[in-house]
């Protein structure tokens, strides 16, 4: 019998008997060629090779020997599978000798939130494509969807899905080096490496990744050295078919801070827009979160939240947490009235989008409140009082209107998107610990709302 036939039988039989998690690797192992008593198998990437060694090597060897009645010599090569319709340069064959990848446990332990899994992510309508493609990447890292980019607004689950990919791969292949990092941390580590003259260690760390998960790439600054470094890291990983997954708050074409060659690298592979969930999915998310916490909440309340908090899952979750905390601490059942009262800060703000509120009005109100001329709020002056008030105005523009970061930036002397987002986040986090600031913001919101009624 030809070895190819024996191989086909081997593969079929093992697929039936192997644990499902291990069979993912066998599925992607293919017959390549044969000589007398010697067979060459192919796997799609270096990453698969490591998994092959761990999960498939012994069972395959045993089964081949058993079915052929002799000792078969097995060799495995890395060979890109040519089934995708990609540019010609990407379909070149890559042959590599088997070199077991050395794994560094310290790197593997980079922070992944274990609760961010595919199981805890509710997918439906708008989020379905992002969810399904993220799962496909996790099932076949280094495969057809490389790099994989998820983009979309704040609080829609980008980090959740990115980390789900990491958690999935770690559990199906515990030896894979999965690195999660935000673009900001990558940048800071690189700067530190330069100042401490440890760039070789930095480079080595990232280039060892089987899977690199890089969050919030819009935070890459227009600093040539950093982009240059990331460009090389990206190429090194890409060329050895390691999986790269990125998230961004907007499509790559709208990233202004990025060099053209990096932009073209990023837009290869698969780019998927994670959109805000629709009403049914918002309800399902709330129900799932209640279930996870072992709590029952009247469906009318969940409906109230889903009807009113539309654009941001993080806010939706936050509202639920507030209500649960209230009912636990005050020991009262939550009624619609209680929900309205407790959530008035979230819900009265036009997350419910309000077409009538403009950055112009907000700047005017904030100026009047702090006694600062609107033109100074818009301008460049950096005295503390002015820049604090400006940050609040920026925060309110982002929070109360549907204007994009770019459009908001234009109202403030052409500040760029990342400056606007930075100001927004700064106020958002400061108001958690600074109750005076939280009150000021509520008052300003009330003032602004009163102008449109
Ligand atoms: P982003 O990175 O897009 O800003 P995150 O991934 O941090 O958003 O998501 C914000 C919060 O909302 C997280 O706690 C996440 O678990 C939750 N979340 C977002 N989308 C979903 C979803 N579809 N199902 C369950 N939880 C979700
Ligand atoms: Mg995120």
The chain-level structural class is alpha/beta
Helical segment tally? Answer: 21
Proportion in β-strands: 5-15%
Distinct bound molecules: adenosine-5'-diphosphate, magnesium ion
Mean pLDDT: 84
Low-confidence stretches: 82-109, 349-353
Helix content: 55-70%
Please count the beta strands (DSSP E, at least 2 residues each).
8
Indicate the multimeric state: single chain
Instruction: Write down the secondary-structure element order.
Output: HHEEHEHHEHEHHEHEHEHHHHHHHHHHH
What form results from the Cα inertia axes? globular
Termini gap: 84 Å
Question: Can you walk through the features of this model?
Answer:
With 453 residues, the chain is an alpha/beta fold. The protein is 56% helix and 9% strand. The strands form two sheets. It has a five-stranded parallel sheet with strand order 5-6-7-4-8, with helices on both faces. The chain has a three-stranded mixed sheet with strand order 1-2-3. It is globular, with a radius of gyration of 26 Å. The chain starts with a helix and ends with a helix. About 7% of the residues have low confidence. Magnesium ion binds next to helix 6.
Task: Show the helix and strand layout.
Elements: H1 3-17, H2 20-27, E1 30-35, E2 38-43, H3 46-68, E3 73-78, H4 105-108, H5 125-139, E4 148-151, H6 158-172, E5 178-182, H7 183-195, H8 199-207, E6 211-215, H9 224-239, E7 243-248, H10 260-267, E8 270-273, H11 279-292, H12 299-308, H13 313-330, H14 336-342, H15 344-347, H16 359-370, H17 374-378, H18 384-400, H19 405-411, H20 417-433, H21 435-452
Helix pairs in contact: 1-3, 2-3, 5-6, 7-8, 11-12, 11-13, 16-18, 18-20, 19-20, 20-21
This protein binds adenosine-5'-diphosphate and magnesium ion.
Residues 158-159, 215-216 line the site of magnesium ion (MG).
